[in-house]
Amino acid sequence: MSWPMVALHELAEIERRAVEPRDIRTGTTYVGLEHIGSWGAFFAPITVSAGELASNKFRFDSETILYGKLRPYLAKIVAPDRSGVCSTDILPIRPGKRVDRMFLLHYLRSPAQVAEAANKSTGINLPRLPPSELATTEIPLPPLAEQRRIAGILDAADALRRRRREALALLDALPGAIFAEMFGDPVERSRDREFVPLGEITSKVGSGATPRGGATVYREKGTKFIRSMNVRDGIFSEEGMVCIDDAAARQLSNVEVTENDVFLNITGASVARCCRSDDSLSGARVNQHVAIIRPSNAIFTDFIMGALCHPHMNANLLRIAEAGATRQAITKSEIERLEVPAPSEHEAEEYSRRLRAGLETLRAVPIPCEAPGQDADMGDEYPRLG
């Protein structure tokens, strides 16, 4: 079905009436770009006091849409549930009678429209979408009843994605949480027990390298090549997995993975993330951003992962990485010197049992598909708008 396309300025008003700092009272809700997640992942405004804000702001209410014009590719677009003031890098949009607010929100936040907004932005270091360009954005205009039907479908999809994020967060947190319950805090040493350096219960600590030729040697089939993006906290992700050919694999034979290894990201933005291997990864290789930690006794694999996933140990690893001479990095010797509670085999077995039981429970909950902002188009779960 084809619907008429109508410019945004014919359907809604972009409100840019300034509020001076002296007119902002204690208890006012304030929204900056930092309070809006990409693709509407979160909306966390703050409350400010009189005199706290030093520059002019825009006013908004619960009938508007907030559109982040700075770096529009981040899709910081939400429908607020309260009134307040916002940064002037956020444009309040007030829908008129011909367009449903949630329908308009979802359309402006669709990947194609976000890409179009990014293309229309001006400025190199701090690209902004001019309000005049936003005003000329063409919106498909089905009947209001159809708009509301479509918005309802997309609202339901958003709820599913929130469930997905919550489920993944629980999966990430589980290894460290169970470890804390059984062994206490490995950094603060909250339990009166013996501690040992990680090097004493491991037989290998080492990182890989990028094969000669870099990404040009990646293949769809061959030896799995593990990168930092595959390592989540407590969970290995196949997303973005690549393979390398036999020649490249031979270059990295010293970092061949076994099923009982632990992976730790040692450089880059995801430094300190940690998970374990399994039999599906035996024979794989790792790149230079990932360290292999191999227990001297395979029964300690889950235990080591849990110790490294504990929130305080994770924070300690981040501090170590920040102290790197030239870049964020964790060295082999720093890993080997990390002290963990000295486990018995029985304790390690019990930890593994509890972890498996917890993971099985969480994985029994269906996890919806990924957010639309990461898809090429709106996908099968989204009705076509126009």
TrEMBL record:
GO terms of molecular function: DNA binding
CDD domains per the UniProt record, alphabetical: RMtype1_S_TRD-CR_like (cd16961)
Alphabetical UniProt keywords: DNA-binding, Restriction system
Domain Type I restriction modification DNA specificity: 3-162
GO biological process terms, semicolon-separated: DNA restriction-modification system
Domain of life, source organism: Bacteria
InterPro entries the record matches: Restrct_endonuc_typeI_TRD, Restrct_endonuc_typeI_TRD_sf, Type-I_RS_S_subunit
One Pfam family, short name: Methylase_S
Family according to the record: Belongs to the type-I restriction system S methylase family.
Entry protein name: Type I restriction modification DNA specificity domain-containing protein
Organism: Amaricoccus solimangrovi
